[in-house]
Amino acid sequence: MTTPAAISSFDRHSVVFAGADVCHEAGLALPAGTNRPRFEDEKWDFTHVIGLPAQMARCTRRFDFAAITDPRWRLVAKELVLAMLTPRHASVIPLPRAYRTALHLNTCAGRLGELTRFFAWLEGQGVLSLEQLDTRLCEAYLAHRRYVLDEHGTVVGEQSHGTRRSAAQIVVDLVNYRELFTADRVSADLRPWGGATASAVAEMPCGRTQNKTPPVEDAVLQPMLAAALYLVSALGPHAVELTREVREADRTSSCKAKGHRPAGPAPVAEFTRLLAEYERTCTPLPMLAEHHIADRLADGWDPDDLLLPVATGVLARQAGASQFWSRWFPALRGPLETTLAVAGVEKVFGREVAKVKTADGTSSRPWTLPLHRLEAVALVGIVRTAAITTLAAVSGMRASELMELRIGCRRPPEEPVTGLTRFRIASKVVKGQPLGGTDDEWVVVEPVYRAVELAEQLHDSPQNGALLFGRFAFDVRYRWFKNWVNSRSGQRLGLAPIPDGPVNLRMLRRTLALEMAYRPGGVLASKIHLKHIAVATTEGYANPRELHQTGEKAQVASSQRGLDGLRDYYEPAA
Question: Is the confidence at residue 29, as pLDDT, over 60?
């Protein structure tokens, strides 16, 4: 252990971890030839650590200690983080309140972020040493992290319980590990919040009396799931073809396409042949997106110019040139206007598409209207989100498990009993498992299996073993999905509007757990399907006592009605 004398003679080197190989001490494996972070480095890069979950953002894989300006506190942060990663280190084991299980890198990244904020706040308070930290400052920092202030310093709201717990936890950690620190440490008699846990200090709600994650309201679930299933089944195959069209256009008509001639005289002969083909096939000229038209107007184009909406750059690349130069207009304006008068101008994608039956079954309409490139890419993204929503809502997989899905995860269908087909998909269970996760399989219904198949077809680089979705923000994707369904595009296809209401992956998982729990043997089936370690966890998801006491059982019955379209699939799987 370090002593006060050691602190007074601080030489910017740790007494405990000097020269340590961080990954070796923490038991983290790296590929051969990869740079290994050392304790003295200002940045610890864990990007290439083997087994990190896809859910972990790349920014959280890089620990930046340089953001802490005081070199003493920077060393404190390094010692604290490495101690959390190495609970069996000889200098950590004797600490009575140290963690006995190594924390995950993701957790340590969060602790480092909060510690950086805390040290910056202390500097703003004029604190020069952790010895000055007292209960008043601890309370002040918790209040600082508790409230949301506007630009005038007026309280306009409160931070989440999780944020407040992080603020309290970092102070508790500095107390629990104080004897380990070389350069600076809190006083030995500091006992913030009377020794209460960070969760108690943050007033975290308890899940013993009720499940903290509510199910999705039926008024939201029914139209959301109906829209997702419709997009996957009715629009999915056409979205695959649209993806191919976009890729082919990028290959031949993109600014980044190779093989085009640089600037030179106007290619009159090439344009003449190209425009003649447009006229012969009555194919409209490509149209510019609205923001490019605005750029032309800002550059001084005449609003009445017939060629204002024409994508001359696309035509130039189709003619073999890298771009369309303004000096070419005197030679090419006449032929362009002639072809424009004959063929017109239209958005490039989705011009002649198949018709699909609308979701309400009242009519058949083209599955999409003509689209610009960005609109086509966005529509493909909406269909991909529909696949994710179907997969999450009907399989009950956690976010970490969805993000671990890879191309080729679908297992061949089985028929254990005549007329009964069983579908499986493979992924990894990450939560509660060692680094790298544990391979596992999920028995799913056919709509989920087809949604995964569609996602593979929409993948930008569908190589076997590549991450199917990778890391994604479902809340952002769902907002785009809901807005599209509620827009004229979704209403044109007869989709019911999705009302406002919270939807996230945890809520979808609990909704499915409730749906399954109220079937014969449902609790045990849910325990197996949701990959819970103990039945008690599954009972917490279903929480029959809560349902009977609060009348939520009626809501469960309503949710069952919202999933009636999938009932025939659920029954065989059970």
Answer: yes
